Amino acid sequence: MGNARQKQRKHQANQAKLQLLTDALNPGEALPCSLAPLKEQLLPCVKRLHKARLPVNYSDDYFQDALSSPWCMTASHQGILVGALICKEMEGGLRVQSLVAEVPRRGIGSKLLKALVQRAQAKGILEFSLHVHVRNQAAIALYDSMGFRTSITKSNYYHRSAATLEAPLDAHFMVKTLAVDEPSGALPAVTEISSADESA
Ligand SMILES: CC(C)(COP(=O)(O)OP(=O)(O)OC[C@H]1O[C@@H](n2cnc3c(N)ncnc32)[C@H](O)[C@@H]1OP(=O)(O)O)[C@@H](O)C(=O)NCCC(=O)NCCS
To answer: What are the annotated GO cellular component locations (predicted)?
Structure first.
């Protein structure tokens, strides 16, 4: 109980610190963050971030399975978790399952997604896909800006989240295909985080 309260206090302190750091940024300036592979140590924070930012319930198995995918990444700023991307290999490409940013519109989501595309490209993976709720304007705008296009719209895809998600429960299935000779740019640094303030 004491431990839970301590974690809650630490989380609140980190949120306040992040608010101050974000307030100090210029309009449109990205929050600098470092990327790392998803590690068990950060799972509680990743879960909390999903819960705070997404109206869809993800099971514990979802996060546990993510640990075995080398494509899952976290973004941190000064030891505070600020973003996460969960992704797995599927049908010869990569399927982005969830992407969350703690602070909106500070370049966290696009940094994670760009890093994924560049890392995948370096391994010869050229196909990317994802589902997104048809009312999720921010995510659709981000995916659109990254070259994803709606291939089909699936009716009632999010039927299991009827209690928490705004109707209609439909999803756009968006895909992005890189050309074989598409320039990839410099490979992003995705480094181990040796210590994380937010670890559980
Ligand atoms: C979707 C989400 C991950 C986007 O991450 P983000 O860090 O806020 O996005 P970025 O700052 O990298 O934005 C990159 C570009 O995407 C577009 N974009 C992002 N959010 C937008 C918004 N609210 N409205 C319009 N365009 C938006 C813009 O083109 C933006 O570039 P700009 O800010 O230079 O104009 C974030 O809003 C989020 O966590 N949402 C809740 C969780 C979620 O819905 N995840 C997706 C489904 S799994």
So the answer is: NatA complex
